Amino acid sequence: MAGEKILIVDDEKSMCQYLSIMLRKEGYDVKTVHNGKKALQEIKESSLDVVITDIRMEGMDGIELLGAVKETNPSLPVIIMTAYASTKTAIDALNRGAFHYLIKRAKNDEIKMVIRNALDLHRVKNENMFLKKQLKKKDDFKEIIGKSEEIQGVFNLVNKVAETDSTILISGESGTGKELIAKAIHYRSGRANAPFVSINCGALPENLLESELFGHVKGSFTGAIRDKDGMFKVASGGTFFLDEVGETTLAIQVKLLRVLQEREIIPVGGTAPIKVDVRLIAATNADLEKAVKEERFRADLYYRLNVIPVVIPPLRDRRDDIPLLVEHFLHIASGRSGRRKTISREAMELLTAYDWPGNVRELENIVERACILQEGDEINVEDLPDKVRHHSQERRKVVMQETQMTLDELEKEYLVSVLEETNWQKKKASAILGINASTLYRKIQRYGLSQDRLKDQ
Length: 457
Ligand SMILES: Nc1ncnc2c1ncn2[C@@H]1O[C@H](COP(=O)(O)OP(=O)(O)OP(=O)(O)O)[C@@H](O)[C@H]1O
Ligand SMILES: [Mg+2]
Fold this sequence. Notes:
Elements: E1 5-9, H1 13-25, E2 29-33, H2 36-45, E3 50-54, H3 62-72, E4 78-82, H4 87-95, E5 100-103, H5 108-136, H6 149-162, E6 168-171, H7 178-187, E7 196-200, H8 206-214, E8 215-216, E9 228-229, H9 231-234, E10 239-243, H10 250-262, E11 264-265, E12 274-275, E13 279-284, H11 288-293, H12 299-305, E14 308-311, H13 321-337, E15 342-343, H14 345-353, H15 359-373, E16 378-379, H16 386-402, H17 407-421, H18 426-433, H19 437-446
Parallel strand pairs: 1-2, 1-3, 3-4, 4-5, 6-13, 6-14, 7-10, 10-13, 15-16
Antiparallel strand pairs: 8-9, 11-12
Helix pairs in contact: 2-3, 6-7, 10-12, 13-15, 14-16, 16-17, 17-18
The structure holds adenosine-5'-triphosphate and magnesium ion.
């Protein structure tokens, strides 16, 4: 990969010049300094990929510099160079963690090969570190649940597009699973072993977002004390997930367009573009088409992002998924407490009837909360929050107001609503209805309602 940063440390200026001309020709980004102290400063301030240092220098020598690098930046490979071959110094350097040992008279090809190997090692080490971190986030390996036609349509699309490198725009209300789907696409793609990097565009002020995305060069603003790679560079080879893309300012949108068109970025305060190799997945819970009409979102960026639209329907439009999701989250929550909990039929009915403005995330939270509240084995209606319990009554009222009903239908509706309100308590319900318990039984039978739900007290 071109553009990797190499630092050359040598008090002999002609050597620095010779090496930097040769390596720049190879496409590397080369910096030279003439003593160990300056080198350490550079190592602290910029993100380097390899250091090549002379051994014999005034002040701090190459071996000391190597020791300091191993302390501050252990994964950065250091190549030691010297005018004369001496087995003792070579072994010494390697023992102290140098990547390799080069004689200044070495052929260009040998020098290039050693550097290439050092860079490869550095990249692999970084990737390993990243992967280890990712493995810790077990979040990335979450199962995706759903059997409704609507969600199966989404899954099919995910499988089809994962292998391609196309840009994807995922839209859906908050909590519908946009990030989960983005990760599923990444882990099913050829980029699965490279990073999945996500950033929430709505969470950061413009300046910060810009420098997080594209990186910055030292001194480009107060506080920029060293070069910093942006997330686009960190995601190199992988997938970049731009969450809440509708929240970006027009200025950032211009820069994102550049990424999509030219496949390159310019760090804040920098001048030279850097090539990036990422697949872009964007997500939004806002209506981007409307934002385009209102000129809050650039049309050209919208069309570039919306190559493959993936729309995740809200949970209330795919109620078939609710029982499966409830069981799934019950299973997870029970795993934590050690005992497998079940849910009563009535509670499940209420959950299926509720409209879920916060979608799957809200469902997940409510099931988890119920598991904590209920110490026994079965989740009941009482373990659900009021908004869920009262929702079905509200809906029934609306239905009754909207439709013309026969007297029988009206009686049935009223009966059910009183039963729900009293939590199917026989005594309370009969008292409100002004009938005795056996008449209540008869009516329940007549309207085909379940007697098992009645409670004695
Ligand atoms: N189909 C599903 N199966 C299992 N879990 C799901 C499913 N959909 C969503 N979830 C879970 O619901 C929660 C919310 O999902 P996610 O964060 O992906 O939603 P989002 O659309 O990105 O939300 P927001 O817009 O608020 O960022 C997560 O814990 C996720 O694991
Ligand atoms: Mg999200």
